[in-house]
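This part of the workshop introduces the protein records we will be handling. An example says more than a description, so a record of this kind follows.
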Amino acid sequence: MPYQVIIPAAGQGKRMGAGKNKLLLTLEGVPVLIHTLQVFERDTECSGIILAIHPGDKDEFANLLKEYKIHKVTSLVIGGKERQDSVYNGLKAVGSFEGVVLVHDAARPFIKAETIHRLVEAAASEGGAIVAVPVKDTIKKAVNSQVIETVERSSLWAVQTPQAFRVSILLEAHQKAATEDFIGTDESSIVERLPHRVAIIEGDYDNIKLTTPEDLYFAEAILRKKQNLRS
């Protein structure tokens, strides 16, 4: 089922401490951004990619798209102050497309096409769906560094991206959030306020977000695992 994807890539990734956009850091000589884009470039179901970028990265990103032959990027839009603003700007660039639109973190390069396809099918049926994995650790609720509750974890999920919605639903949710000056933690949180149900598609634990320097070690290990599986 055809879909389009909005990829917010305007953040500066200060927790990575790289001194530049973390998406320009390389894994096996290839920028993180390109690893992520190649997943969608190679997926025949993806009909378009919209990148929300920082103005200062525009030339470098454009050069990377050309160098690595990424042809599905239909728009480079300017990101906003918040990630939510960047997604909204990207959503406005979707145009007349009326199907399912995904929102995916640019710093999650290990999402699998099979997971994307299950997600898109669920979003087309339910109106909205997200990728998540069951929480493995014991979760404590604390106040002032004192435990006040051990949270029962069987119903807890660690949310990832992509998150997928029918275009009309996500647009309505963003318009409502903008009107009410509401900033959500993710796309699902603003869709839930319509209110609208959001389904969960179980993903996998390799779909990590590269946030801190330590994550790069895990990313290299995931790449080696993938190479071993192919050999």
Remarks:
- The longest strand covers residues 157-166.
- The longest helix spans residues 213-230.
